[in-house]
TrEMBL record:
Any one GO CC term of the record: transcription factor TFIID complex
Leader peptide range in chain numbering: none
Protein's name in the database: TAFII55 protein conserved region domain-containing protein
MF GO annotations: RNA polymerase II general transcription initiation factor activity
């Protein structure tokens, strides 16, 4: 089983990561160290490249992304379902307010939650609490409160 994640970084950090990953192990550089640490809430943290530190956030994606691997360039093998993304921001950029990233990974998924998925129904919390209480009473052998039972008359024709 593989563990995978999506790491979205600003262009300047992406260039540094590309250089770091493509360099030989023998070359010496200040950017050799990479580190990702999260705070106790598990949603915010710090991404470090060398001596530079960037704020990072764990965000839920609006849908699941499948990851595939190939060994022979013809057969694809599914390796993971990815539902979260680590977003690294530049120092001073705005901090995401929500735990869900509204947009997917590609331009067609822009504002996907609003445009593509069914909207949640508007429910009155008091009505839900009352219905839940009535169901618990009925399951315990009691009756529902504030229910009017109307007599039913049956008429048969012969």
């Amino acid at each position: 089983m593989e563990e995978q994640f999506i790491l979205r970084v600003p262009p300047s950090v992406a260039e540094r990561l590309d250089r770091l990953l493509s360099e030989n192990a023998s070359s010496s550089s200040d950017d050799k160290s990479l580190d990702l640490t999260f705070s106790e809430d598990g949603r915010s943290g710090t991404f470090s490249v060398g001596n530079d530190h960037f704020p990072a956030f764990l965000l839920d994606l609006p849908g699941t992304v499948e990851s595939y691997k190939t060994y022979d360039d013809s057969v694809l093998i599914k390796t993971a379902d990815i539902g979260q993304m680590i977003m690294v921001k530049e120092e001073g950029d705005n901090v995401p307010d929500e735990v869900e990233y509204r947009h997917g990974l590609t331009p067609p998924m822009r504002d996907a939650r609003r445009r593509r998925f069914r909207r949640e129904p508007d429910l009155n919390p008091e009505l839900v609490r009352r219905a839940e209480k009535d169901l618990q009473n009925i399951m315990a052998g009691g009756t529902a409160e504030n229910i009017d039972i109307l007599p039913v008359t049956l008429a048969f024709r012969m």
